[in-house]
Amino acid sequence: MIPKILNQSDGKWVFEDLAQMLSRSLWVDISETPGDLNYILGTESELVTSQIGSFIPLKSIEIAADKREIEQKFKAFGVNRPKTFILTSIKDVESILTTHNSNRWILKYPTGCGGMNHRLIEHTSEIPEHWPQPFLIQEFIESVEPAVYRFYCVDGNLFGFNARKFADPNISTPWVSHANGARYNYEETPPPAAIEVATAALMATGLYYSFGAVDLVKDIHDRWYALEVGTDGIYNHVDRDIDNNAVLDELNQRLAIAFWKRLGTPPWGKSWQYRG
Fold first, then answer.
1. What whole-number distance in Å separates Cα of residue 179 and Cα of residue 71?
2. Would you state the pLDDT for residue 275?
3. What is the pTM of this model?
4. How deeply is 57 buried, as exposed, middle or buried, from its count of CB atoms within 10 A (0-12, 13-18, 19+)?
5. How far is the C-alpha of 248 from the C-alpha of 266, rounded, in Å?
């Protein structure tokens, strides 16, 4: 079998740095033509067919790219998450805001990353024109300290638990994202409830046995909720700027071992190391 890191299309530049990192860690060449087993990065979605062997399931890449698809899977598999609604009209949104007025509600941009374009809303007049439909409305979970927690998962193993937090207490945005200045903290030990919710989220979206990341929040009563999952490929990739070289190396090593598990004997010899 011939393995490839598939990076093609006009948007391949978005994945170029990640492609170079993966080439060194997986010991696999970057190509614009597919091999037998592919780590798919940049490509036009219509060029990817079910005949292409993909380390990360193609359907899971599609699901992770749209929060509405994630919600449908979370709902179908009973994943613990904030109250979430997919609504087809402004009137439906108004009904939720009116009948659940004790909650705070987020209008989530369905294909955004890092909280991009999300907004707290109290009235439908706050919905921008030409917003993607159907609408995704989610309950805002109040917490003692704003934080979003993350697990990485490769081949059925969760690791790298961290909390994204703001070092500056004066930052008031509710979107605790790396893009908004939050940084990863690795000092916390994951409780069993967080592991359970994370596992359920990754299983529901088909990422548990390949590669995915899952973001969680907890409320003031220490109840855990899955927000979303992410993975690499076609539309997005998981952030590698994670302020921890040991976790990054562990992620790369786990990916390499899992990738070559499907191919046969790995090319690095007795113990994994970066190529070159």
1. 23
2. 97
3. 0.93
4. middle
5. 20
